[in-house]
Automatic annotation (TrEMBL):
Name this protein carries in UniProt: Indole-3-acetate O-methyltransferase 1
Keyword Transmembrane helix included in the entry's annotation: no
GO molecular function, one term: methyltransferase activity
Keywords, in A-Z order: Magnesium, Metal-binding, Methyltransferase, Transferase
Pfam families xrefs: Methyltransf_7
Keyword Transport part of the UniProt annotation: no
InterPro entries noted in UniProt: MeTrfase_7, MeTrfase_capping, SAM-dependent_MTases_sf
GO biological process, alphabetically ordered: methylation
Length: 384
């Protein structure tokens, strides 16, 4: 790993280290932290809670163990890509409450509940654990643990998990696709930091990486899930058949964020090669692209697959205040991609980059409020 020491900073060449060791949402509870910038995700999650509950209703209930049996029934739930805010805690509590209702309605003894919060090793688990309730859910305690690792690999023992939940995470690829940052390759994404508006070979590399990653995710979960278990997934999606049109993600990372990088290059603060060696590893699929991978994989049956309009990621109190809108976009962008940018160009230049994002977003506040809309692919899956 190449390190460049500077005054009060360390710059890491992101190309030379595995993304899973670095990628995480902005930790802590500061202004640009994910914990304080995930209200939109909470709103979007509430809009699809009926599909979450339908998926939970398909989980097989466990009968109580035979008399004199020393082992209790255990319902185990996992939130994959949990990050470090309240959303994951609220989701797990909602899942446990719903399953408690089902057990009560069936006249069955409640199992013990265990919740695993899983994300990459760089996730701020400390902040997350401080948010966990001390008194459980509705008076019923549940066991909790953090599991660090990539969800594109096995994380749990075979046939051990009743329910998997993953929201707003699967659009993150396991790595920047091969060739995208290599000058000699046809997929080289010259002059761009995202797939939005890129050439055909670049788009193909991103799509292939998404297909490989989702396939690996499904294989891992199919081995870990109990017979009778189910899975609920939400990820960024798009409605356009054209992969170069990444919808809300394209507007977030392919316009003002892109322009800010270009401005750093024009001012000589960052080389064009340094810019071209940074790419956001996100791919927003259509529902058909998602379905194609699930069906080709063969591990899961699709109970329901829909695209929902999630709305804007910007939560502002004064929509007519352009400065507030601009700042909201910059903070939102930084909470998601700031860690990667910091590692690539250092915190000082990162600060300059996001100031430029804010300036450009402020100038286009009205357009952003009208056009920045996220769509989500929502899937309910059972073992095939």
């Amino acid at each position: 790993m190449a390190l460049q020491q500077g005054e009060n900073r360390v710059v890491v060449n992101v190309n030379m280290m595995k993304l899973e060791k670095l990628l995480c949402m902005k930790g802590g509870q500061g202004e640009s932290s994910y914990a304080n910038n995930s209200k939109a995700q909470a709103l979007h999650a509430r809009s699809v809670v009926h599909i979450l509950e339908e998926t939970l209703d398909l989980v097989h209930l466990q009968p109580p163990p035979p008399p004199h049996h020393h082992q209790s029934a255990v319902f185990q739930v996992v939130d994959l890509g949990c990050s470090s805010g309240n959303n994951t805690v609220d989701t797990v509590e909602a899942i446990i409450k719903h399953m408690m209702k089902r057990y009560h309605a069936a006249g069955l003894e409640l199992p013990e509940f265990a919740a695993f919060f899983s994300d990459l090793p760089s996730n701020d688990f400390n902040t997350l654990f401080q948010l966990l309730p001390s008194d459980g859910v509705a008076g019923v305690e549940y066991y909790s643990a953090g599991v660090a690792g990539s969800f594109y690999k096995r994380l749990f023992p075979a046939r051990s998990i009743d329910f998997f939940h993953s929201a707003f995470s699967l659009h993150w690829l396991s790595q920047v696709p091969e060739g995208v940052m290599e000058k000699r390759q046809s997929a080289y994404n010259r002059g761009r930091v995202f797939i939005h508006g890129a050439k055909e070979a670049t788009v193909a590399a991103y799509k292939q990486q998404f297909q490989a990653d989702l396939g690996a995710f499904l294989r891992a979960r199919s081995a870990e899930m109990k017979i009778g278990g189910t899975m609920f997934v939400v990820c960024l999606g798009r409605t356009s058949p054209d992969p170069t049109d990444q919808g809300g993600a394209g507007l977030l990372f392919g316009t003002h964020f892109q322009d800010a990088w270009n401005h750093l290059v024009q001012q000589g603060l960052v080389s064009s090669e340094k810019r071209d060696n940074f790419n956001i590893p996100i791919y927003a699929p259509t529902s058909q692209e998602f379905q194609d991978v699930v069906e080709a994989n063969g591990s899961f049956h699709i109970n329901k697959l829909e695209v929902f309009k999630g709305g804007s990621p910007l939560v502002v109190s004064r929509p007519d205040d352009a400065a507030e809108v601009g700042r909201a976009l910059a903070i939102s962008c930084r909470s998601v991609a700031g860690v990667l940018v910091d590692a690539h160009i250092g915190e000082e230049l990162s600060e300059q980059l996001f100031l430029r994002v804010e300036e450009r977003a402020t100038c286009h506040a009205k357009e952003l409020l009208e056009n920045l809309q996220f769509f989500h692919v929502v899937a309910s899956l059972s073992l095939a």
